[in-house]
Amino acid sequence: MKKIQMVDLHGQYLKIKTEIDNAIQQVINSTSFVKGPIVKEFEDDLAKYLNVKNIIACANGTDALQIAMMALGLKPGDEVITANFTFIATVEVIALLGLTPVLIDVDPETFLITPEKIEEAITPKTKAIVPVHLFGQNCDMEKINEIAKKHNIYVIEDAAQSIGSDYIFSDMRTFKSGTIGDIGCTSFFPSKNLGCYGDGGALFTNNNDLATIIKSIANHGMEKKYHHDRIGVNSRLDGIQAAILKEKLKYLNEYCQARQKVADFYDRELSRISEIQIPKRGNNSSHVFHQYTLKVAKNLRNKLKEYLAKHNIASMIYYPIPLHKQNAFQKFGSSKLEYPVSGKLAETVLSLPIHTEMDIEQLKYITSTITKFFD
After folding, report:
1. How far, in Å, CA of 255 to CA of 248, rounded?
2. Tens digit of each residue's pLDDT (9 = 90 or more) over 327-349
3. Distance of alpha carbon 57 from alpha carbon 26, whole angstroms
4. Structural domains of the chain in order of their starting residue, each with its CATH number
5. What's the pTM value of the predicted model, to 2 decimals?
6. How is 29-94 classified by DSSP, letter by letter?
């Protein structure tokens, strides 16, 4: 069997090749490469899908987080609470803007920050919370919003890995991931559930005034051309990427369901192995499985990864070093703090291939190979 990759973007492309090729050609024919009508069309389609008032597309997910913090008027020295176990982009922009990242440990089962840990970390300097909806399911947004309202602080959702998932409130109201806080941010990196063929990102908000500020910041601080009302950045989604995303958005629910079926198969076949813990799914959130991440007995994780590689099965460790151990964040004194859960996860997590093009033969091969390793 040929090597099984973490994602199969080429296989996914081939299924919608005609639509994608036509969409790209239309942009080339129009020569509307930057801020053309196709970008607005995609923003409108995504707003309808997410049931949110405003979508502002930008150059990438990291920019989306930075623009969100700029739009909310956060100042140097303000504290921003977020997860210690996540990709560096979430925290990178906090430090870049002169803000103070306050890293908190995550739940050992869901890998998400909890309302309890957030409440413990709040100080008079706290101005924002960034819940990271890691691997495809949502943090407990109902309680997080209650805490934010109580302390008069902002909520910026990092939905880079969770687009398409639903969060269910206790009164059964359902919202799409990224549309619950003050601002939601996402990435359209190619491997994401909704990915383009380069870089791309977007911000979501139901606050029209905030949307106006976000649009301005993302376009050099302009609301009217050549009138710069605030300091901004140059962060725009190009027309070709917007055209690709507009076509792929039509299939997002199908893509999420395909990932969920893969996860269901893994769950059934791997749950019987005592040295493995399958991903926990929260009660108040659907899971769209951007990653399917196991916890493996500490002394076996690396050996399992090597064994899979020898059998042409890709796997990845997300993430091998918690943020508090990264050199870039030592000046914040984070290395002096204890994060027992993040530390243990870094030594035990392993993500298996999961994507829209996986077939039953591949899944049986992966799970049987893992089973043989532990026999």
Report:
1. 9
2. 998 888 666 678 999 999 999 99
3. 20
4. 9-104+111-249 (3.40.640.10), 252-374 (3.90.1150.10)
5. 0.96
6. HHT--BS-HHHHHHHHHHHHHHT-SEEEEES-HHHHHHHHHHHTT--TT-EEEEESSS-THHHHHH
